[in-house]
From TrEMBL:
UniProt lineage: Bacteria, Candidatus Chisholmiibacteriota
Family annotation (Gene3D superfamilies): Fe,Mn superoxide dismutase (SOD) domain, Iron/manganese superoxide dismutase, C-terminal domain
Entry function: Destroys radicals which are normally produced within the cells and which are toxic to biological systems.
GO terms of molecular function: metal ion binding; superoxide dismutase activity
Residue ranges constituting the Manganese/iron superoxide dismutase N-terminal domain according to the UniProt record: 2-89
Top-level enzyme category: oxidoreductase
Keywords: Metal-binding, Oxidoreductase
Catalytic activity: 2 superoxide + 2 H(+) = H2O2 + O2
Stored InterPro entries: Mn/Fe_SOD, Mn/Fe_SOD_BS, Mn/Fe_SOD_C, Mn/Fe_SOD_N, Mn/Fe_SOD_N_sf, SOD_C_sf
Protein name: Superoxide dismutase
Domain Manganese/iron superoxide dismutase C-terminal: 98-184
PROSITE patterns found in the cross-reference section: SOD_MN
Length: 187
């Protein structure tokens, strides 16, 4: 069964950019909910419980149709958030030029994602970087891309502190990017 990973820092570690209450609710309620619902979806499928969530998302078409949407939504939610926590840090390290130069395009993708979803810098099969966004909890893994950087633009990620000001959230979020993790993902 899948479990909620611990955060690699305290809930208040990303203050003032990302507030402690948002972090705590986001982790213990939202992410936990995705984990619980993923486990529920897989309860009758022990062979799928042994796969990694990344492999489930890469092979959604191999997941039985009756649970495919649940795996897409809740498996995506689990994988996206597990990565998201690691992509933030109070000590982010040195910006990675190849990714940092895509900032404007990345922020634009995050600003123009209508409704709930994510913006990403991903690597394609040829190793080329590109900016994309996904709706809901869809993972770039399901389209053959490897996520390198991703930001959650669901309102639950910012509404308590930033209300409707998504641009302010994104500007603040950029200050807590964990560049050490980004460079690890490039390899
Ligand atoms: Mn979220």
């Amino acid at each position: 069964m899948f479990t909620l990973p611990d955060l690699p820092y305290a809930y208040d570690a990303l203050e003032p950019h990302i507030d402690a209450q948002t972090m705590q609710i986001h982790h213990t309620k939202h992410h936990q909910g995705y984990v619980d619902n993923l486990n529920k979806a897989l309860v009758d499928y022990p062979e799928l419980q042994n796969k990694s969530v990344e492999d489930l998302l890469k092979g959604l078409n191999a997941v039985p149709e009756v649970i495919r949407m649940a795996v897409r939504n809740h498996g995506g939610g689990h994988a996206n958030h597990a990565l998201f926590w690691q992509l933030m840090s109070p000590q982010g390290g040195k910006p990675v030029d190849a990714v940092a130069k895509l900032k404007d395009q990345f922020i634009q993708a995050a600003m123009t994602r209508f409704g709930s979803g994510w913006a990403w810098v991903v690597k394609d099969a040829a190793g080329k970087f590109q900016v994309m966004s996904t709706a809901n909890q869809d993972s770039p893994l399901s389209d053959g891309f490897t996520p390198i950087l991703g930001v959650d633009v669901w309102e639950h990620a910012y509404y308590l502190k930033y209300q409707n000001r998504r641009a302010d959230y994104l500007a603040a979020w950029w200050n807590v990017v964990n560049w050490d993790k980004v460079s690890e993902l490039l390899v």
